[in-house]
Structures are given as structure tokens and as C-alpha cells.
Specification:
Two copies of one chain form a homodimer.
Chain A (H helix, E strand, L loop, with lengths): L5 H17 L7 H7 L4 H7 L3 H26 L2 H19 L2 H12 L6 H23 L9 H17 L8 H11 L21
Helix pairs in contact in A: 1-2, 1-4, 4-5, 4-6, 4-7, 5-7, 5-8, 5-9, 7-8
Chain lengths: ~210, ~210
Amino acid sequence: MRTKRPEQADKILCVAARLFATHRFHEARMEDIAAAAEVGKGTLYRYFKDKEELYLALLDRAAEGLLRRIDEELADADGPRGKLEAMIRAILDFLSANPYLFDVATHAEALARPGSLASWKKLRETNTRRTLDIVEEGRQAGLWDIPDPETPVLMLLGGLRAVLRFGSSTRPAELAPRILEDFLHGADRKAAACGKRPRALEVGQG
Amino acid sequence: MRTKRPEQADKILCVAARLFATHRFHEARMEDIAAAAEVGKGTLYRYFKDKEELYLALLDRAAEGLLRRIDEELADADGPRGKLEAMIRAILDFLSANPYLFDVATHAEALARPGSLASWKKLRETNTRRTLDIVEEGRQAGLWDIPDPETPVLMLLGGLRAVLRFGSSTRPAELAPRILEDFLHGADRKAAACGKRPRALEVGQG
């Protein structure tokens, strides 16, 4: 058997990503992927023994790509507030450019093959931990006071998924700063005025 | 062929829901469901021709149940703020009590059978529209000013999913008012102090 070359695998995955962007999992066939990648079907099956394996490899590659993208954005960001915005922007940009990843992740999740979602789970956990670290950094710097940050951080990251999946495709250019502003200070612009913010005690009184 | 009785179908779905709560889709077998519902396998297959059909029926039933629950909570709620909190509470309570629904929805999504997710999609769209209506009601009542509410509403509803799916299972009792407070006024409690909230212009400056 001939050896596998990483560049070849990468080329196949790149082509498959483009194909899955316009076809659902059940529609895209291995022969289409082979043809688009300009390799024989035999070669394709040497790299990925079935469509599911290719799917999971695609997910691993995407998770790595997003983590790398976040690293790059964070390296350029200034201060905790800049880092939070960079995190939001990286996630929005990467998943806007690769919307098929939601389908891929959903399908992989339904496969129930043990460990099939390990890379996606790691991505989620890494993003949650990093965001919590930035929130803590901001607290230490006296920038904000976010008690029990787990819930707001999950709301933030889970909310991004919904905006990407179900929001209108024409997204405002300045979406990341808007989402950060809402996260820190709320969606209600009226509360910006002095003294308008209700005290916690008044919560839930209609 | 004997006629199908709605109570019988309901009993089977109720039993299946309990079974899927502790087993993944691939693990739960039709014979287990028949045995737990105390019906013969033949009877089960008269109601649901395969496990996928049963799954989709379960999803329809759950979507109806959640919509009904939201209706009830909204009927008891006072004013737009009370309604927003009721909406959040209904979603948190219903999905906390039926956590298997996420697996069911994920699997149904991956089935790619046309229309398979119609009831789930309707649920999401109804919840989004209702939340937007409440936000508008509050705006008209002068309670708040939430410009372009689509993004914050998607962030809110998508965030709830993440809190339910990935948050710690020991959730604070007063989670709904906390989430509402964060939604309206932000996670940063420091901003509550007069004059601390940065102006929109300062967003993104690190």
C-alpha cells in the first residue's frame, strides 16, 4: 500500500468542505468528493475508509482551524475587553465563512461513534475556559464585576451559535462590538442613562 | 387492521421519552419500548413504522408541550418584563425536565428526512417571534430601548440552549431572573453604578 501524504489528505478535506457547503451529508457522495479532489476513488478510500470518517476528519480540521484563528486574534488584541471582542469576532468570522460546519457537527453528534465529537467538545471547552480566563483577567484589572461568570459566558458562546445559524445572513458589519456591548451592559440602551438600571431586588416584578 | 387510539400513542410516546432519557437513540430498541409500554411489538409498529418515526413523533409532542407550557406561563405573567422572565423560565424548566430532547432533536436533524424537523423549527420560530413581540411591547410601554432586537433575542434563546446543554447540572434557583437581568442590563454589575457604562463609541477600543 502506498503511503498517505498529509498534503493529499488536506487537499481532499478542503474539497470536501466546499462540497458539503452546498450539499447535505446524505447528498454528497464519495465519488463526487474523489472527482472534485482529482483523485481516484481508491485513493480517497485509502485516506478515509468511509464518509463518516471523512466527516470526522473535517470536523477535527475545522476545530483546529478555529482554535488557531482565535489564537491569532487574541495575540493581536489589547486588554481584556479587546480580547473578548477578538474572541467573538473570530468565532463569528470563522463560522460565517464555513457555515456547513454546523451540519457536519450535527451529523457527527448523531453518529454516536465513541469519541466522534472529541475535537468539537475540546473546542467548546477551550473556548469556554479561555473566555472565563479573560473575564477573570478583566475582574483583576478592575474593568468589570461579573459574578458567577459561567452562566453569562455560556449565554454568550451559545448565543453566537444561534446568531450564526438562525440570524439573517446580512449581518451588520459591527456585530462583534455590539454583542460585546450587550454582554457587558445589556441590550437595553435606556439603562445607559444614569440611575435607570433597576436593582437586582426589583427583578421579576413585571 | 385495528384502529389507532390517541391515548395508546400517547402512552407509548411517554414511555419512549423516559427510555430515551437514559439511553441514546442507537441503544434504545423498539422491543424495549414495546415492553416498557406493555404493548406487543406488532402494536408498536402499527403506531410507528420505525424508530425514526417514533423519534419524530416524540419531537412533535415535545414541541407542542413546550409551546403549551410557555402559553400557560405567559398567561400568568405581569407586564413585558414579567413575560420575558416567564418565557425564560418556561424554556429552562421544560428542557431541564426533558434533557433527552436535545439528543432527539440532534438525531432528527441529522436524519435529513424532508420536513423531519418541522415542529422543532416551528417551535424556534414561534419562540423568537413571541420574544420579539414582548420586546416591542416593552418598547411601546417605555420600559426599555433595544435597537435591532433580532440579534439580542437570538443571543438570549441560543444562550439558554447552551446553559441547559453544557452548564453545571446544579443550577441556581433564581436562574431565570439572573438571565433576564443580564439580557437587559449586562453581566457587568459594576456598570450599575452611575456613569460607569461606556458609550457605544468607545466599544472595541480594548
